Amino acid sequence: MNRPEMERPDFDHYFMGLAIAVRKRANCLGSRVGAVIVKDWRVLSTGYNGTPSKMPNCLDGGCERCAHPERFESGKGYDLCICVHAEQNCLLAAARFGISVEGATIYSTMRPCFGCTKELLQAGVERVVYIHDWQHPDPDMQNEYGRIQSRFHGGINRLAMDDPDAEWALPKRKLTV
To answer: Which of 5, 7, 70, 87 is the catalytic position?
Structure first.
C-alpha cells in the first residue's frame, strides 16, 4: 500500500509550536520564553528561561529581580537577574552535548535580547524566527540593536502565529505583542 503524497509541512509553524510547548517549563516571573534550535529540519536543542540548575526557581524566590520587580525600572537591574534566557539554555545544552549549532535556525517565542543576539551570532546561528517582539529598553540603543541583529545571514523573522498562552507568557509590563 502506497502512502499518498503529503504536502510539505510549514516548518516555521511546526518548530515554533515546539518552542511554545518547551516554554511550558519556563519558571520566570517576568517573561516565559521557549526556544528550539533546528538544523537540516532536525531539532538540535531546546531551552526555556529560568534559574540555573540546582538553584531555587523564580516562583520560589530564587531571583531577586523577579521577586521584587517594583524595585527595578523596566530594562534595569538585569545584572541582578539570575535567570538564564531560553536562547542561552539552547546554546548551553547543545554545547554540553557537543552539538554544533553553526548554520542553524533558532525558533524563539520572543525576539532575542541584545545579549542573546550576540551569543547566537558567536555560535554561528544563521536565522532567527520569533513570534513576540522585544525592543531594547533604551531608545538610544535601538539602532545598535537593529544593526547587530541584521548580521543573521538568514534574517530575523517575525512569524505571524497565534499564541494561545500569550497572556500567561508575556510580562504585564509594556511589550509589543
So the answer is: 87
Decide if 34 contacts 19 (C-beta within 8 A): yes
Q: How confident is the model at residue 2 (pLDDT cuts 50, 70, 90)?
A: very low
87 among known catalytic residues: yes
Mean pLDDT of all residues in 153-170: 94
Q: Residue 51 and residue 29: Cα distance in Å, rounded?
A: 11
pTM of the predicted protein model: 0.88
Q: Which three cell numbers stand for residue 130?
A: 520569533
| Measured CA distances, 54 to 23, 50, 71, 82 (Å) | 19, 11, 26, 12
Classify 142 as helix, strand or coil. helix
3-state DSSP assignment of residue 119 = helix
Cα angle 92-152-77, degrees, rounded to a multiple of 5 = 55
